[in-house]
Specification:
The protein has 107 residues and is an alpha+beta fold. It contains two helices and nine strands, in the order βαββββαββββ.
């Protein structure tokens, strides 16, 4: 799993705008749901959970549980600006299907 520099910058900006301390890392998760079966989730957390994988990328701490790490293997997370708005884009080579919203996928 790779967070692009642009995505990392947007995470830092969001953390600052929401008055969240710099010590908080980014939790990236895959959860059941969405229109394609699974959906991506991003949140801030101060400490890792038991059995988390912890990464450092572009000055950010990233927390992943083992299930998420498996589904996101080889995934690039970018931040894009486009005609339909702005947001985080998951380029997941493991997804066999996605939906129009871009936050749901199937494997």
């Amino acid at each position: 799993m790779l967070l692009t520099p642009k995505a990392a910058d947007m995470v830092k900006i969001t953390r600052e705008q929401e008055d969240i301390e710099e010590s908080y890392g980014l939790r990236i998760a895959v959860r059941g749901g969405g229109c394609s079966g699974f959906e991506y989730a991003l949140d801030f957390e101060n400490d890792p959970r038991e059995n988390d994988l912890v990464y450092q990328q572009h000055g950010l701490t990233i927390y992943l549980d083992s299930l998420t790490a498996r589904y996101l293997q080889g995934t690039e997370i970018d931040y894009v600006l486009g005609m339909s708005g702005a947001g985080f884009k998951f380029n997941n080579p493991n997804a066999v299907g996605t939906c129009g919203c871009g936050s749901s996928f199937s494997v």
